[in-house]
Amino acid sequence: MKRITLIIFFIGFKLLSQSIYSVNKFNISFETTEVLKIGSTESENVISFKNDNIVVDIEALPIEHETKKFLTNLKYGAESIATDFGLKDIKDGGKLQKINNGYYISASDFKNGKKHTVFIIAAYDYDLGVAYEISIDSYNLNEAESIRIINSFKIIK
After folding, report:
1. Among candidate residues 148, 136, 147, 146, the one with its CA nearest the CA of residue 82
2. Phi and psi angles of residue 92, each rounded to the nearest 5 degrees, phi first
3. Average pLDDT over residues 45-68
4. Domains of the chain with CATH codes
5. Nearest CA among 20, 80, 74, 25 for reference residue 47
6. CA distance 126 to 130
């Protein structure tokens, strides 16, 4: 009985230790149990959050910069981004839970000879006039935590 109580305590503690990362400039947020730092980027349209386990890059573009095919088929958009990045083993993910016009895929990449999973999100919000291209490099995270991050993304207005 003590073991079950202890397990429930740690699960509850882990759920309560979620951090929300909001990017007001891009009107988007996500949650994770990971403690992330803001990294440098080469563009004012991109923000990067990272630690040794994960890198979350969010690019926000004016919606008119995306192709009509991207906007009408977000699965195609996510796959196209993955292909442009040179990712391999592209697999279907599904629709985002909190962004109506959002879709993700998973793929594989290699860093320093080690394979890791990369998730690509293609999304947009017509009201804001913004399209999002998001990559999540999961170096040391299990897939379940990465999916929780993906499903936590939401538009903030």
Report:
1. 136
2. -65, 140
3. 95
4. 2-155 (3.40.1000.10)
5. 25
6. 7
